[in-house]
Structure prediction request, 197 residues.
Amino acid sequence: MALNVLGVSGSMREGSTSLRALSIALDAARAQKGAETRLLDLRELDLPMYRPQSPIINEGILEAKKAVEWADAFVLATPDYHGSMSGALKNFLDYHWTDFAGKLFGYLCSSHEKGLTAMDQMRTAVRQCYAWSLPYGVAVHGDEDFDADGNITNDAAGKRLRMLGRDITVYGAVLREQFARDIASDALDTFAARYRK
Ligand SMILES: Cc1cc2nc3c(=O)[nH]c(=O)nc-3n(C[C@H](O)[C@H](O)[C@H](O)COP(=O)(O)O)c2cc1C
Prediction:
């Protein structure tokens, strides 16, 4: 069964660099045998602010829900906003805090620095949802790593993005298999036990 990898783009900017970087990672994921990819562009989806008590249901919410349920693994892409992930990406995560357990996440950030604190925040949010994270993230610099047409010019950054696409697929498959095995067993001493239906 193909591993389903969902890329989530958290930039509201037309011509977003983090979206360009995400496309490179998703292409590399798709190049792996047995991976399918989809892109959720939050700029197009325009999710309303999450309200736990009076949920608004619109097409964007339903589309995001379908994509999240489809996904086995995720690549989250954000611009660095004040050392944080974008509000749009955080809002997306707020909708799905019960949907990520046992799945694998990878991170990339478009930043003028290294994007480390923004990626740490995504990692923390994902950990709170009982999901796994790749042990590294990839930062790109919009002005230095891409040409005027949006093509990547920094070979090292391109290589790291392709590594991210490869790793999310390969490690995502390992985790999906083990999680399914733990759910199917009757063992109580695994974190998957609480997700049995
Ligand atoms: C509100 C706001 C806050 C920002 N804060 C930072 C920051 O703290 N550090 C940084 O390196 N860049 C910061 N930037 C610059 C963006 O991270 C940078 O332009 C990024 O490449 C945009 O990514 P995108 O093209 O995917 O939207 C900020 C930009 C905006 C609009």
User: Anything to note?
Assistant: The chain has a mean pLDDT of 96. Residues 11, 13, 16-19, 79-83, 110-113, 142 surround flavin mononucleotide (CB under 6 Å). The longest helix spans residues 155-184.
